[in-house]
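Hi Y.,

Following your request, here is the sequence exactly as I used it, all 223 residues.
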Amino acid sequence: MRSVPPRNSLVRETTQFSTQGRLEFEQKTAGEGSRAVEGEKIERAVAEGCVTSRHKKSQLRTRSTKPPRIEFPEDQLRRTFYRNHPFEKERPRIVMEPTGQTQQDWSQLTHGHGQVTGENVIRHQYYLMQNKGLSEREAYAQATSEFYKIRAREEMEAKSARQEALAYGARGLAKPFSASQLAAEDRALRRSTKAFAQRAEEQNMRSAMSEKMFAAGALPPSS
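Below is the corresponding structure, written out as tokens. Let me know if you'd prefer a different format.
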């Protein structure tokens, strides 16, 4: 069973930084309601006593129903990171917010608590670009180097904890039900494949023996 990482839409989040209305989709959304379009008024003759209505040519045009593309500053950084680390999206994530604060200090990759994910790397990289004057490549190299050190420390801690638990008599966790069922299915397929191969070999041996006996005259020819 091949493991395939999920798409970026499952890990994409809104920006954690103040954009101050400078993004393209923010300007389009803000300008649609307040922008006054100069246009020539259209008048038509109506009968006496009727109410007239005047419209601008721009108001008679059908507006496009296509929504503006929402693109945050971190999206390009997110695409680059997950293209180089596709299986980081398979790691379980903690979606609970222990502090209830969405705006955090991203001057450091981690403050010693909480889960470290690819989103931490992306936001720390963007912070370095905006506040430290680093280029995208320099900020990426610095953020990922810190990320690799944290991942290596986590793997060593998990390995040490496993060895300590086994030394104290702990037993390994059983496979999940789905994994055990897939393993049983693989064993059954291997047994059936072996049985079919053995049956085909026996059939070939019988056919060869019959041909030899017929050639020696032990069997009468079929009329």
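Residues 33-42 have pLDDT under 50 and may be disordered.

Thanks again,
Q.
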